[in-house]
Amino acid sequence: MTRPPALYWRALSDDTIQCLLCPRRCAIENGQSGHCGARTNFHGRMEIPFYAMVSSLAVDPIEKKPLARYLPGTYSFSVGFWHCTMDCPFCQNWEIAHPKPRHVFPRSIEASELITQALAAGTPSISFTYSEPCLHAEYLLECMSLAKTRGLKTVLVTNGCIQVPAARDILALTDAANVDLKSSSAEKYVKVLGGSLETVINFIQLASSYCHLEVTALAVPGILDSEEDFDLIGRILSIIDPSIPLHITSYHPDYRWNLPALDASQVRNLARPAGRWLKNLIIHA
Ligand code: SF4
User: Fold this and answer.
1) Whose CA is nearest to atom 6 of ligand 1?
2) Are 80 and 172 in the same domain?
3) Do residue 113 and residue 25 come from a single domain?
4) What percent of the chain stands above pLDDT 90?
5) In angstroms, rounded to a whole number, what is the distance separating the alpha carbons of residues 227 and 67?
6) Pocket test for ligand 1, best of 8, 17, 19 (most atoms within 8 A of CB)
7) By CB atoms within 10 Å of each CB, which of 20, 50, 222, 244 scores lowest?
8) What would the DSSP string read from start to end of 115-162?
9) Which residues constitute the domain of residue 60?
10) 158 domain residue, yes or no
11) Could you tell me if the CB of 136 is within 6 A of ligand 1?
């Protein structure tokens, strides 16, 4: 399989490179990988060991992404990769987002073959989802370009924790996106989730100008569980565009987070303050 050159990196010295894809901006020595495990320094050049490696393929209702206002009632050919740019302790897809090396099964699919499979499934769109698709920016760009030339709509489901140059390239080929907004606190984003609130807000702002956009906030006890949190999330989104649909969903205990899930009435009560700022609140509880 021919691989395109890795993008979004620079040389720091003969031996060390810096990845510029996500806000961690890992400095990576020869033979090592960045924090995510998916981008590697091979003799002073960036390599992408998981290029075209697919973890999951399925056909899902578009509402499962979740997208409520884009191609409603249709199905979407859905693709997942491996690894993630963030470290959420409650990860709902940890088996593919944080896999142990022996649990990664090597199934690679050329971009052209992937799009052929999506067209054969007969869905109007292809969704890049389940794990963090933007981590595989080069393959994602290849797949999205091909999808668009062959008449498929492209859907991106992402944590939005990606730097502006890559975000612009990806969003320019995206028809619809759902972005997770996991906290209203910059401190929690850094210390608990391993991400950057500022980067995610910038991504949401960019996405709102490029494509159809919806946002998801997952109610997680101990992380995103107060009316103040949801009030701030509503306020942040309303500054960008008060008509952005906000999905509020309840987590289930998983990965390293065991606190019991909030019940339906708790989630509805938490969500209420966000509804004061936004026109489209969709509560999944
Ligand atoms: S994408 Fe991976 S290697 Fe690049 S900066 Fe982020 S965590 Fe580091």
Assistant:
1) 22
2) yes
3) no
4) 93
5) 24
6) 19
7) 222
8) HHHHHHHT-SEEEE-SS-GGGGHHHHHHHHHHHHHTT-EEEEEE----
9) 56-284
10) yes
11) no
